[in-house]
Amino acid sequence: MARILVLLICLAMIGFIFWWFFGKHEVASATADVADNKQSVDVEVKGGYSPEVVTLKKGVPATLNFTRKDASSCLDRVVFSDFGINKELPQNEQQSIEIDTSKAGEYQWACGMDMFHGKVIVK
Ligand SMILES: [Cu+2]
Hints:
By secondary structure, this protein is an alpha/beta fold. The chain has a single domain, classed as Immunoglobulin-like (Sandwich). Helices cover 17% and strands 44% of the residues. It contains one helix and eleven strands. It has one helix at 2-22; strands at 29-31, 33-35, 38-45, 49-50, 53-56, 62-68, 77-80, 85-88, 94-99, 105-111, 117-122. A six-stranded mixed β-sheet has the order 1-5-11-10-7-8, with no helix packed on it. Strands 2, 3, 4, 6 and 9 form a five-stranded mixed β-sheet that branches. β10 (105-111) and β11 form a beta hairpin. Residues 15-122 form the EfeO-type cupredoxin-like domain.
């Protein structure tokens, strides 16, 4: 009986590893709605970023509203190295970060340890 259980656990783990490395992971992306010459996108921080790719309109003042729901300290900072932004994300509190949209391009953001990533596309 115990053997069968061990076998089942092993199979489940192998399945998980295959899914992790070879499975298709959908990248959640969002495009900001522009209203009154402003645009904003809410980003949930929970084991990563959702959405992970945010598209903004060039030249329209933009804010990304990060809310960290994850207790892990790994995600307690968000860093936009292109903009010199390094902000703390208090848990369960919305933190608004203004993004410079004057230049088109792709800008990465990351957690404080550069383990989790997201991307802003300005176009
Ligand atoms: Cu981290």
